[in-house]
Amino acid sequence: MADWEFIVSEVFGGPGEDGERLIWEKVTQALKGTGEGIACLNYTYFNRDRQLRYQPDVLLVNRDQGITVIEVKSFAIDQLVEIRANQWEMQNFYTRYLYPFRQGENQLRQILRSCDRRKALRGRMPGRVLVALPCVTRDEWQARGFDVDHPTCPPLIFGDELGRRSLRDALEYRALPIERGEQPLNLSNTDWRELRHVIVGGSRPVVPVPPPSIQSRSDVLSTLQTFIGEFDQQQAKIGIQIPPGPQRIRGIAGSGKTLLLCQKAARMHLQHPDWDIALVFFTRSLYQLVPEILRTWLHEWSNGELEPDFVNGKLKVLHAWGARDRAGLYSLLRNQAGGSVLTSAPVTGSIPERLAANCKRLLENHPIQPTFDAILIDEGQDLLTRETLQIEDKQAIYWLAWQALRPVNPHSDIRRLIWAYDEAQSLDSLKVPSYREVFGTELGALLSGQRTGGSYPGGIQKSEVMKRCYRTPGPILVAAHALGMGLLRPTGMLSGFTTQQDWQQMGYEVEGDFRRSHQPIKLHRPPENSPNPVPQLWQQPLLEFEAYSDRAIQFNAIAKRLRHHIDEEGLQPSRDLLVIVLGGAETEESSQRHSASFELQRQFAQTLRSHGIDYYLPGASTTNQPTTGMNQNVDTFWMSGAITVSRIHRAKGHEAKFVYILGLESVAQQEDNLLLRNQLFVALTRSQAWVHLSGIKDAHTYSDYLLYDEVRRVIASGTTLRFTYRKPSQRSLVDEDEIEPLVAVN
């Protein structure tokens, strides 16, 4: 049965907040189990003039009764001097005059206007206002000669009337109707989702039952389009919350982490336009995607009035490193510190290692100027490096971001650093960005809440886990986990979660005991945690695998399939279709494999042209051109009318309806290489609907690699995996922030 959702948007610590928190606690106790609704503390609404922001203390949105605003005034009775209609004269208070009912009414009307912009809700929403005085009793009020029954007295709830029954009665019978709306209010499921969207920015539609007209992939995509981009309750809640300190968001691939961080950054920017905010990511080609998502949120909440400047404005979009033509987090802070700090030989290694080494040098040689009020980091798993590149047992990139932040208030050194990650998607590191890994053992334990509690005052969590995957269909996601971790390898898994709790947090149902080796394990992914509707809409396999005898046969066969998708099935070359090439890594040590994957990308692109299909290589200046140092457009991943052919590192963070994956033989030749398996995981989870996975057979034996048999077993398993547990030979994915510290007993 649906119940109320309780959302604390922000905790300020200012005057009157104790009273607001008391009212909030009593309201949550009174409303639990009373129907379906959304309750928000310190919810902020933005009207058409972006200079005005309305913030009801407590906002209640009930499916059956409409919208109620509770305006909380936390003063003692002796601070109230006189009431003249809507004006209350105060003494020894932070302001001389209060207008509580008018304030609540203005806030309510702004929200009702937003409802009226939606046809399904226009003129239907009842709206009421109630004024709460948590520090005043009814007897104190009447003893001062104030009459609760006077026509000019607003509807009041006093501090001695906060029991569950009395508070429910006040909300139902005492709150004053400002708009009567539809009586009784009868919202369909679709109407309720519209109302939720007005308040918290989205709700997931019900997974559709496949209509009989579904005959082609384009039919599936038409239905899928109504599903993509919506938020579930947890996402919406996290997205509008502004924590008063660090926050870790651990999310399974496709759970909406990037979308959520963009929502959170946009809300911070509108709610606090004076803040300096940075949204940081690792994959530079996300410069095309992230601003698009941010603009969507900003336009929606400002009703199209706000045109952001992500380069010079208060809300900045930054690549982690930066380049000559565009500032990144590191280069921005380096320049503020006085220029280059590369005083020794250039650093070698992977891109994250080179970045960490430079961050470490910067921290060791220059004081960092606090520049931002909030930093949000996406793809946090890609910013971790080995211990030798850490600084004082802290990850250098994260510690640089921490030093670049202003404290949240003058009385604390706590700072607002928010990072999102999926440890299974790392392409260059086998570490997990827990609080301990990022900030070191001591500070990590303090910030994570192991010593102080796992939530901030008001209930905002210090760590969130997102287990529902909306992007990738269940069978493909399960295959990605199985192949990425090697769960069905004959000799045992290479990597993976080793507790039931961790698997459950990733959305799996678990049977079996991980405490001992050689125990049978069963993992099942239920539809509610993979609600993508494509498995219901498309009755044929979503994930196909084929091993070709040679490269020419493979390339021509795939080119013909892509031509069929475009000409016969109505798929668009750009964004519906994506080709990903596996193999290689972004390191100098792996230059040979890197060159092989680059050559594979180039050869397949030429095959597409021979079939009359336009291609785009990320970073090229236009379609049907190679990438060179002279014509790079490094921030671009898609080009209209062309199929993007990308190596894996550039594909991270992007998604398409149908993903073709080439180069599986490069993984098969080193099937115990976990970083290569991680590439396969990332490639599979770029898909919103279908995947075609292919490789060529062993050139020496003309037979399949052992990995190919593993792939076939995984595909046949569907959404249920059965295997014999052996301790991972390379990496155990354990959430260190959830481990209770050991206590010595004498």
Automatic annotation (TrEMBL):
<dbReference type="InterPro" id="IPR011528">
    <property type="entry name" value="NERD"/>
</dbReference>
<feature type="domain" description="UvrD-like helicase C-terminal">
    <location>
        <begin position="644"/>
        <end position="693"/>
    </location>
</feature>
<dbReference type="InterPro" id="IPR000212">
    <property type="entry name" value="DNA_helicase_UvrD/REP"/>
</dbReference>
<dbReference type="Pfam" id="PF13538">
    <property type="entry name" value="UvrD_C_2"/>
</dbReference>
<dbReference type="InterPro" id="IPR027417">
    <property type="entry name" value="P-loop_NTPase"/>
</dbReference>
<dbReference type="GO" id="GO:0003677">
    <property type="term" value="F:DNA binding"/>
</dbReference>
<dbReference type="GO" id="GO:0000725">
    <property type="term" value="P:recombinational repair"/>
</dbReference>
<feature type="domain" description="NERD">
    <location>
        <begin position="16"/>
        <end position="117"/>
    </location>
</feature>
<dbReference type="InterPro" id="IPR027785">
    <property type="entry name" value="UvrD-like_helicase_C"/>
</dbReference>
<keyword id="KW-0614">Plasmid</keyword>
<dbReference type="Pfam" id="PF08378">
    <property type="entry name" value="NERD"/>
</dbReference>
<dbReference type="GO" id="GO:0005524">
    <property type="term" value="F:ATP binding"/>
</dbReference>
<protein>
    <submittedName>
        <fullName>Pentapeptide repeat protein</fullName>
    </submittedName>
</protein>
<dbReference type="GO" id="GO:0043138">
    <property type="term" value="F:3'-5' DNA helicase activity"/>
</dbReference>
